[in-house]
Write a structure and sequence with these properties.
Number of strands: 7
Radius of gyration: 17 Å
Number of helices: 10
Distance between the termini: 39 Å
Structural class: alpha/beta
Helix content: 25-40%
């Protein structure tokens, strides 16, 4: 009950501060398993996309949260666990950078699928080491959840996203049946600039674009660049 009340309070607060406008430009809001991937300029990005989704999608969609930031206080940890149902990724110094927050270690060569040269999704998931930064995301997708990721990894400060890290590509290989939906978050960095603790009311929006697919035999960098362009294209929509 407490988490439900907090969810309603946060929805009202976010909508008051930002307007929380969702623009479904390239696909309708649909209760299917998806990976939403978006630009990243603020810790509020997680909250913004969560608030922009309709209730039936919020209940099946788990945003990715940086463990070191979102578990820094008991209240933040409770919010991300009880309200957002977030998937934590580790990005502390001395540990592998999380996906999508960084390039992940090379995986053992996967077993080929019946289509020559095409990695088998089940073999890729089975070969994933338990401590791999992608493991929590894989577990969430295997359980049937949708997820929200930020392929840049760290927050950007320019007009365009930084180059995408490899996590989105690897997830697309391991879960070819999951729909990949690009999204552009507009203006949220002005609501909560880096280093600030008091939000400023600014009209914001999230534009969801047409899904993309990993083409057979497509190379990692070609796919990641294409995914990045799909996000940037939504900026002017």
């Amino acid at each position: 009950m407490l988490s439900k009340l907090m969810s309603l309070f946060l929805l009202g607060l976010v909508r008051f501060l930002t307007g929380s406008q969702a623009r479904w430009y390239g696909c309708p809001p649909k209760a299917e398993q998806r990976i939403y991937f978006a630009n990243h300029q603020s810790h509020a990005d997680l909250v913004m996309i969560w608030a922009a989704l309709p209730q039936e999608l919020r209940s099946i969609t788990r945003p990715i949260a940086a463990r070191d930031y979102w578990t820094k206080t008991p209240f933040r940890q409770w919010i991300t666990t009880a309200v957002f149902n977030a998937v934590y990724v580790d990005r502390v110094s001395g540990t592998p950078a999380p996906q999508p927050a960084g390039e992940a270690p090379a995986m053992p060569a996967p077993a080929p699928s019946p289509a020559a040269g095409t990695p088998d999704p089940e073999a890729l998931r089975a070969a994933l080491p338990e401590g791999d930064p992608l493991a929590p995301l894989v577990q969430a997708l295997e359980s049937g959840d949708s997820i929200v990721i930020f392929p840049e990894g760290t927050r950007g400060h320019g007009d365009e996203p930084q180059p995408f890290k490899s996590g989105l590509y690897r997830l697309a290989q391991m879960f070819p049946q999951v729909v990949l939906v690009p999204a552009w978050i507009h203006n949220v960095q002005r609501v909560m600039p880096k280093g600030e603790v008091v939000p400023v009311p600014i009209l914001c929006s999230v534009t969801f674009g047409a899904p993309i697919e990993l083409a057979p035999g497509e190379e990692r960098r070609a796919f990641l660049d294409r995914a990045r362009r799909a996000v940037i294209a939504l900026r002017e929509v």
